[in-house]
């Protein structure tokens, strides 16, 4: 139910009481416009029920499902209504979902863009409809930054650098180090930035070289498939696998075992996300390190949306804090991991 209650009016919260979705006419419950609202839209009581549209990337990884749950729980636990759309990793599905949120006159759109580019038109439509857009997890590469309120997510370049720094510390002085890379979804912020951060570090060490690099689209199945191809063409010359997420690393570990090599011994395995599956692989001695990327920022996102709609200023960029975990910590930490 879409309800506008101007904070300035001190309007009755009960107005938000009706639950079901009445569709396009739902703005019938709008309270009177006193003319005191700003151009940007009306400010709202913190306790007011909001309708929030969430356009999620898909369900490609353990990270993603943890992020979806965190966001869904946070929105509904705060008493807001969620309209959820899974894009199945396709940009056109996200554009459709955002258009549908606009048509339904949601109060806010949370948007986790599959890729960085190509969203100008639809985001302009949201802006014209005065619906604020909150970027979740992944950034966009769009010049006009008035098309979104803020970007809450991880620093992917930093994650790539952490992976690179761990590796050079671990293997410096070992002669030639041949690295194969499993990239995330082509054109996505984490794939672009995790590559860049990692390369920034290893490019300073001439004995470290990325010999093969291909996308595994952030999934186990593709990670396995691409690793199989890497092994087939150059099996005995691979020292390190750098995977842009743990799911691809886990798929690749299977491929390495099937090929007859020992993951983490014959080939050093680096992943990103720090999902449970990576801790299990590390505890089993099959993976060396995972760089944390925390997906549990649903509550933080809801707080930001509420603050913004209540008229408070929010920073343009909010980073999620995270760490890095190695094999020797895995057994102890595994029971405490939440995703
Ligand atoms: O690392 C990967 C997922 O955008 C940070 O997307 C996210 C990435 C995450 O599929 O597992």
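-> sequence recovered:
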């Amino acid at each position: 139910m879409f309800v506008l209650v101007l904070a300035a009016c001190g309007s009755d919260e009960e107005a938000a009481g009706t639950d079901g979705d009445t569709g396009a006419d739902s703005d019938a419950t709008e309270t009177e416009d006193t003319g005191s609202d700003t151009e940007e839209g009306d400010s709202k009581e913190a306790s007011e029920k909001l309708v929030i549209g969430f356009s999620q990337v898909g369900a490609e990884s353990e990270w993603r499902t943890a992020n979806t749950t965190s966001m869904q729980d946070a929105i509904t636990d705060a008493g807001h209504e969620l309209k959820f759309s899974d894009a199945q990793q396709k940009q056109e599905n996200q554009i459709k979902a955002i258009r549908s949120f606009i048509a339904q006159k949601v109060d806010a759109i949370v948007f986790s863009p599959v890729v960085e580019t190509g969203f100008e038109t639809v985001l302009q439509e949201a802006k014209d409809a005065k619906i604020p857009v909150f970027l979740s997890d992944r950034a966009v590469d769009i010049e006009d930054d008035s098309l979104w309120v803020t970007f809450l997510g991880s620093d992917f370049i930093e994650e790539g650098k952490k992976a690179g720094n761990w590796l050079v510390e671990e293997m410096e002085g070992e002669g030639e180090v041949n690295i194969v890379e499993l990239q995330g979804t082509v054109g996505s912020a984490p794939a672009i930035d995790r590559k860049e951060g990692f390369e920034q570090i290893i490019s300073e060490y001439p004995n470290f070289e990325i010999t093969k690099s291909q996308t595994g689209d952030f999934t186990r199945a593709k990670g396995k498939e691409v690793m199989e191809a890497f092994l087939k063409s150059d099996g005995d010359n691979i020292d390190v696998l750098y995977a842009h997420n743990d799911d691809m690393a886990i798929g690749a570990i299977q491929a390495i075992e099937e090929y007859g090599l020992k993951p983490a011994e014959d080939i050093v395995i680096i992943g990103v996300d720090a999902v449970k599956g990576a801790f299990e692989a590390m505890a089993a001695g099959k993976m060396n390190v995972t760089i944390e990327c925390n997906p549990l920022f649903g509550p933080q996102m809801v707080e930001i949306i509420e603050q913004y709609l209540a008229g408070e200023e929010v920073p343009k960029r909010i980073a999620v804090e995270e760490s890095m975990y190695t094999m020797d910590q895995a057994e102890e930490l595994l029971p405490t991991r939440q995703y």
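The first strand starts at residue 51 and ends at 56.
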